[in-house]
Amino acid sequence: MENTSPLPASSGNEPFAPTTVSEDTAFAPRTDLSHLSQHAEAIRRELSKIIVGQQALAELLLTAILADGHVLLEGVPGVAKTLTAKLLARTLSVPFSRLQFTPDLMPSDVLGTAVFLPNKSEFEFRPGPIFASIVLIDEINRAPAKTQSALFEVMEERQITQNGTRYAMADPFVVLATQNPIEQEGTYRLPEAQLDRFLFKLHVGYPTLEEEVTILQGHHAGLGSAALESVQAVLSAETLRELRQQVRRQHVEPHLLDYIARLVGQTRAHKGLYLGASPRASLALLNGAKALAALRGRDFVTPEDVQYLAPHVLRHRILLTPEREMEGQTPDDIVQQIMQQIEVPR
Amino acid sequence: MRFWLRLCFCGLLLLPTGPVAVGQPALRVSNPTPTLPTDRTSRVRLRQPAARQLREFRSQREFQYVEVKSEQSGPSRFWARLWSWLDDFLATKSGQVVWEYGVYSFLVVALVFVVLKLLQVDLTRAFGRAPRRSPLLYDTAAEDIHSLDFNTLLAQAEAAGNYRLAVRLGYLAVLKQLTDHGLIRWQPEKTNHDYLRELTAGSLRPAFQEITRQFEYVWYGEQNDLSAAHYTLARDARLTLQRQIATTRRAA
Prior knowledge:
Order of helices and strands of chain A: HHHEHEEHEEEHHEEEHEHHEHHEHHEHH
Number of helices of chain A: 16
Radius of gyration of chain A: 23 Å
Strand content of chain B: under 5%
Strand content of chain A: 15-25%
Structural class of chain B: mainly alpha
Shape of chain B: elongated
Largest sheet of chain B: none
Order of helices and strands of chain B: HHHHHHHHHH
Number of domains of chain A: 2
Largest interface: A-B, 43 and 49 residues
Distance between the termini of chain B: 122 Å
CATH topology of the largest domain in chain A: Rossmann fold
Radius of gyration of chain B: 49 Å
Number of helices of chain B: 10
Strand order of the largest sheet of chain A: 3-6-9-1-10
Oligomer: heterodimer
Distance between the termini of chain A: 29 Å
Number of strands of chain A: 13
Helix content of chain A: 40-55%
Shape of chain A: globular
Helix content of chain B: 55-70%
CATH architecture of the largest domain in chain A: 3-Layer(aba) Sandwich
CATH class of the largest domain in chain A: Alpha Beta
């Protein structure tokens, strides 16, 4: 067979052909992600004015915002879950509302209600606090299932239907919810259907010793409220929509789609799981990986991105069998096991 | 009138009904058992059943007490014999001793098992090295880098101008070389960055990091239009690294 290639048909140790191509142009993103990187860096900078440490949390929150997903933040009281969510909302110049979920909260308190106007002899819909771009739901698992179900439609379809009329949400629309672990007093377990609507469930842990000392130093110096006021909005709704478009155009190698499907599919076959993840989890993993890759300056997704996000995407979508729970295993353990069973495409 | 009827009724209830009601002790009557004399005079007549009737009875199905042969299969017979032998053995004195100690042993083993389970102790590591996972445990379709002829495959890819594939094969060849030198441990589920973290040889790390970056851009970034000049850059970097690896002392 005749060799038509400009290179010798060998990969041996022969001398290399001289090249004049710059390496920078060869292996660089084909999409200009500098705009996205600048905005991401600006948000990180604003968050770091108040939040000490938690870089991984900030990156994951940004990933969720870019992937157009909702986030559930779980942690014990006092680890700055609400503060982080509030600050993130402050860095975006979009309408923001906050809801404190309580056991006596009614669906109409969240969605809004129709009010009768005697002078017009007709009902008028008064939108509830859910009508904002960033909605912070504090302690979401303190409301019963009836109120939780009010969020099903709005979180998935970005709309609510009242008396046969459809009311669309703003774009962007992101729910940032915080919750205490289920073991805490006065909490309810969220319905599986609702948990599935969250892109990520993020665990907020305790700070390290050094971070805690820095928190104390800042508090002692009286920087609390002043620093809070100094946090600026650095991203508009319009810019966020543009960045999301850019994220949607990220390259995903076909084998990686297969890898994602296998990972999620394995949760349905795992013996230690009573409930596996839905196809919505596959979509969440794909969208999240695209956003994370963009944040890390790449215009393509790698298996590293998928593996990094898999626990955050899957941990709230799977249910362990009672035996595994009694053995002290966690959903994260099972996700790790699953990742060790699937070959990385290469 | 009704009053008198009630009075009479109460009177009837209070009437003595026996020795218990009146509180008198029961009378003991002596009644000796009569003994009859043995009858030695009556004649005993033996009655024989009629032979014809006997034959009739014998011909009836209900009176044919024939032992039915067992229709058990071979394994069933084996198990039946085994249980029978075990039954007999346990009935003996030595069998009872064995049974007693067997039960104690089982209880001790079960207790140890439960304790180990609760403590989450992995006993498989107690007798030597941890079990090594097979490199291709689950996916038979996986590409085994140890069985690929990289020189031939690379030559074919380069000849066909498929530089994206050539970059991939070159990267796999590097992974194989690193594995052969004991610098990394090849596992299909590991990512490139896992290998990077594993690679402790300081001088190789930057070069491996660079070719990993190139591979990811070309392969995951779907650079199907990679030019020959760009490929040459990637190939140069790879060959330099491969020469470095070849001169690195094999890890223990």
